[in-house]
Amino acid sequence: MLVTRLQPQGFGVIAFAQAVSIYIQLLADYGFSISATRYVAIHASSPTAKLRDYVSTIHACKGLLVLIASIIALPILYLWSGGGEAFVAGLLLMGSAVGNALTPLWYYQGVNRIRTVAVATAASKWVGAVAILLFVRAPTDMLFVACAYSVPPLLVALACTISLDCAGIFKFNAIDFRAMRNEMRIGAPYFLISAGTGVLANSGVIVLGIFYPTSVVGIYAAAEKVVKAAVGCIAPISQSVYPLNAERFGESTSAGFRSVRQTALWLLCPAVAGTAILFLIAPWGLGLLHWVDPLYLRIIRYLCPWIVLGVINNVLGIQVLSAMGRGKTYARAFFIAACSTLILMFSLTPAWGGVGIVFGMVGGEFILMILLMWSIRSIVSGIDSQWFK
């Protein structure tokens, strides 16, 4: 719909600014969605004072990181947009990154109370979508679109922070700056994982924007959003089972693997079934949206293997290695895969455009899958290697 109303050029501006915002969010997350969730899951029954100190420290870390990331992003947005309305849209969309980064999903995951914040987050997205549906009519409404994307996440983050404060879980006077440095050190491997995830999943729009005009970027970004909407349906399942697997690995390795074998089906079955359905109904759905350019269908269908590979890597990396506390091993694999993805993208995109981006993404996920499978097999076999330390 946005492609039709904003036209590919206007949608390309929104897509590029959203990609930059995602990188702000990735830097602010710093892997705390993994490390902090694991800590809270293990210490959920600890005294409130202990949780308050930890939650306050992590929240302060994320606030500092989102400030640093936003300062870095400003010149990037300005140089790309050249100022004007496109730059203002980018500034507004940074609000979505701030809101998402400061929403303490990691805490609610750890204490198995994700439902409330998940409902609030979903409701905020629906509010933004409805506002866009009702009020966006032409490319001149681009700034309204940016506000619709950014204001709801900011309100959710504010509401969650106030809720934690009222519950005595977050207090400004409980922030320990020395503890902040320590948590940054502990979270470093998981930051590499988080950054690697961003490279594997979100660099396509930026790399394509380097070589092609915004009209081409808009077509690719629209098709990619369809696929990522399907992937987003799997995220709540992953968030729900991760604390359970982390708790089981805390008991024993064998208990952890038994838990993963059971919960993996909850992730893999919907992914395979959903991907098959998307592949089959894509032409019909694109017809309803009046997306007539054949590139839309090619990108969506070529990205279908990426969905399945991504879920497999979620099981291997998040549900196994991260739940085991093997963050450094996971980070090394992600670093190699992310570099491979960028090399493939920059090599293939000049000649193949959006299809080259897709092949780079699929190739990166496949490389990551091989590395994770080898890592887990070697750990289980008891191979003593510096790679796993």
Automatic annotation (TrEMBL):
InterPro entries the UniProt entry points to: Poly_Biosynth_Transport (IPR050833), Polysacc_synth (IPR002797)
Annotated compartments: Cell membrane
Ranges that cross the membrane: 60-80, 86-108, 117-136, 142-170, 190-214, 226-244, 265-287, 299-318, 330-348, 354-376
UniProt keywords, alphabetically: Cell membrane, Membrane, Transmembrane, Transmembrane helix
GO cellular component: plasma membrane
Domain of life per record: Bacteria
One Pfam family linked to the record: Polysacc_synt
Membrane protein topology class: Multi-pass membrane protein
The family this protein is said to belong to: Belongs to the polysaccharide synthase family.
Protein name as catalogued: O-antigen transporter
